[in-house]
Structure formats: structure tokens, C-alpha cells
Amino acid sequence: MLDMLQIYLLFSLVLYIIGIYTLASNRNMVKLVIGIEILVAAVNLNFLAFGAFLTGPSTLGPIDPMVQVFVILSICVGGAIAVVAISLIKNAYEHYGTLDIRKLRRLRG
Fold this sequence. Notes:
Blueprint lengths: L3 H22 L3 H27 L9 H32 L4 H5 L4
Helix pairs in contact: 1-2, 2-3
């Protein structure tokens, strides 16, 4: 049977695969930002799982507060980056009328 660390790592792997698939298959800029945020969530989950299970003697052991601080900072920075990306996407849509990456690449001079 899988222990808790393996379950968290498996779920993190599934999230990572979903994020990579989203980045590889979509041409919409909003979906690309969502894919990046899914990847960041997978990395944060991985970091928390290793921090929880490598610092304590059991699954109910103490969790390293430094790991939690790094993940909270990562979430805050990721949220700020997502807001900036969405505002740039909004400006690109207002200026060019499309969110398709391939159409926007053709506009390069």
C-alpha cells in the first residue's frame, strides 16, 4: 500500500503533467497562465510533502516552518505574477483583438 508521501508525490506528478499538457496544447494566453499556475501548485505541494515527511519521525510529526514560509511566499509571488500577466493579456486583447499566441507571433516585425 502507498504511504502518505507517495500519495502526495503522485498527486503532485499528476498536477505537473496536467500543467505541462496545458502549456503544450493551448494557444490561448489565459490558459497558458493557468497552466503555469498549475505547475507552481505542483511544485509547492512537492515542497510541502518533502518538508512534512522528512522533518518528522511520523506522518504526524512537526512540519518545518521554513518550508511553510517558502510556500506562502511562492503563492504570494505567483499571485502577483498572475495579476501582472492577466493585465498584460487584457492590454494585448484590447490592442490586437486576439488572445491566440500564433496570431500574435505573426505581428512581430
